[in-house]
């Protein structure tokens, strides 16, 4: 019993071996680094997801879940920008030899976010007066303005 193996006798005096498994089966805990490495391997060009999963002892379904989580996180991220370095132009180059550029001076550039596109503008006409309502207007303010227009005209 110490080694969790029992011999049992069946009908006809034949023996069969029974394995007793004690304790509960536990799920493997994957660290963030392990997940990142496995997912990165699965995104490599020409990689077969099933083979990557099998090689790392992960079920294909779990690897697919991890890949979807990474893809969703990438879609939600703001685009990354690379700093631009601007150097003085020397103009000494010829057709066969590229121009040599003096050492670059790093100039940080401010990259402004594109202006928010106005969408969802609603035009309301009340008694001949037209109001343009843009997103973000408080309901209480709009109600007050509409009530005033109904009373005036």
Walk me through what this model shows.
With 153 residues, the chain is α+β, with helices and mostly antiparallel strands. Among the domains are: 26-76; 122-152, no CATH class. Helix content is 33%, strand content 16%. The chain has a two-stranded antiparallel ribbon with strand order 1-2. Helix 1 runs antiparallel to helix 2 (49-56) and helix 1 crosses helix 3. It is elongated, with a radius of gyration of 35 Å. The relative contact order is 0.06. This is Transposase.
Keywords:
disordered N terminus; 153 residues; elongated; 4 helices; two-stranded antiparallel ribbon; 33% helix; two-stranded antiparallel sheet; alpha+beta; single chain
Secondary structure topology:
Layout: E1 5-9, E2 15-19, H1 32-43, H2 49-56, H3 60-76, E3 85-86, E4 105-106, E5 122-126, E6 129-133, H4 139-152
Helix pairs in contact: 1-2, 1-3
Give a brief outline of the structure.
By secondary structure, the protein is of the alpha+beta class. It has four helices and six strands. Among the domains are: 26-76; 122-152, no CATH class.
Biggest β-sheet, characterized? 2 strands, antiparallel
End-to-end distance, in Å? 96 Å
Cα-atom radius of gyration: 35 Å
Individual helix count: 4
The helicity comes to: 25-40%
Mean pLDDT rating: 72
Overall shape: elongated
Number of strands: 6
Family: Belongs to the transposase 8 family.
GO molecular function, one term: transposase activity
Pfam family, one: HTH_Tnp_1
GO biological process, one term: DNA transposition
